Give the backbone structure.
Amino acid sequence: MQPTYLPWLGYFDLIEKSDVFVIYDCVQFEKQSWQQRNRIRNKDGEIMLVLPVKYGNGLLRRINEVEVDYSRNVPKKHLTSIQLSYSKAKNFSAIFFELEKIYAGKPKMLIDINVSLIKLGMKLLNIETPLVYASELNVQGSRVEALIDICKKLSVDRYLSPIGSKGYIDENNLFPENKIKLEYQNYNHPIYEQVNYDNFISHLTYIDYLFNTNTTN
């Protein structure tokens, strides 16, 4: 999977169900994608947090080449928004402290802040799946061909895919001929109380779940 900013719970479900999880960091960065944004909530509904990045070197860059833009102090504003939204939540103090440490470090690259936030989620959800960067595998090909190449280089015989990738995989499904079993994620998002709000909003960032519940993975 591409390294998402403050991923949703389903992202961690994929990690937990995998023997090894590949951070797909060597594909092209997409502006205004989940690579740099995600949603929290407050009393008025959902809020989109967008992490600004530098565009000085053009748009045709890989994810691991993109720098965070700190000129407008937006990451600190994200912390303020999170604090205002969740300060009354059950588990606010401990989790917010962990987030503060990550943002205070001001990671230069988008990949670094995203992976730090992913690793924090894994720690808090008790997930110990090893992570591998696709950029370290010298991946060949694109789209499905690249997925097959990753599987072969890791000597795996099963690939677990998010259901959202089914469309492009079906167009060129090379898994059977390469004797790799293809499975699609089937994830049921939990429903939980969100800071005493009456309505539930699903598919928010994973920190919404952790702030609001006393249970882990």
